[in-house]
Amino acid sequence: MTKVEKIMRRDVVCVGADDAIATAWRLMVDQGVSGVPVVDAKGGVIGIVTEADLMARLVPRRMPRWWELVFADREALARDYCKTIGTIVADVMTSPPISIEPDASVAAAAALMGDHDINVMPVVAAGLLVGVVTRTALINEVAWESDTSQAGAAAEDQLVREMHEHMEDEPWLSGRAVHARADHGVLELQGLVDSQAERAALLAMARAIPGCIGVEDHLLVRGEVLRRS
Q1: Pairing mode, if any, of strands 35-39 and 214-221?
Q2: Does the pLDDT value for residue 108 go beyond 60?
Q3: Does residue 220 carry a pLDDT above 50?
Q4: Radius of gyration, CA atoms only, the chain
């Protein structure tokens, strides 16, 4: 599996906590990235400044109402205030940052960035910054072309078995009223689902099975069936 070190950017310019916010923004523009790491004097990563951090300065500050002060996290309010009026990197940076090691897998990096909704992530080795990995780099690493087009159609019983196994694993499936059959690599889905979203997910599931060269949709949405009745 591809490692982060293969796709990370190594030519990254950093900022210090005492640098002006404008310095961080200029570096983001010059490097074409949505965030720059913040390092200490020894090269250790202590934070990151991203476009999301800078967005707070564009939103007019609203004074919290009295009931919000009663229930709010005052520490969070103080941090928000600092981001809104701050002038140096330390005021607006996200700290500590989410980071990853260079020998981690691309899949692990994608999971971290997806879970924390971040577009750029420092890569750290022995406590020091060695690069950054971006969502663009991760996406570029993905082979979007389907492998099934080269492999040809799979056996009918294999397609049906894998489809039902995948359905058994998914908690969002409303029930087991969906059945699959296959003919010359084409999966046919029949049955009832609770929503159009569930229907679309099942069709995507079928298309993703190796050896599936087509999908026939005979799924019905319960609410639509009841309305027609």
Answers
A1: unpaired
A2: yes
A3: yes
A4: 25
For domain 148-228, give the fold: Histidine-containing Protein; Chain: A; (3.30.1340)
Backbone CA torsion sign across 142, 144, 150, 153:
positive
- The residue among 79 and 178 whose pLDDT is bigger is 178
CATH for 4-141, options being 3.40.50.300, 3.10.580.10, 3.90.70.10, 3.10.20.30 = 3.10.580.10
Sign of CA dihedral 13, 19, 25, 30: negative
Contacts by residues 156-160 (CB-CB < 8 Å, ≥ 24 positions apart): 156/181, 156/182, 156/183, 156/184, 157/182, 158/211, 159/185, 159/187, 159/209, 159/211, 159/212, 160/187
46's tokens: 């202590």
Task: Write the CA distances from 181 to 93, 168, 171, 198, 202, integer angstroms.
Answer: 54, 16, 22, 19, 14
Q: Which amino acid is at 80?
A: D
Coil, helix or strand for 79? helix
Q: What are the structural domain ranges in the chain?
A: 4-141, 148-228
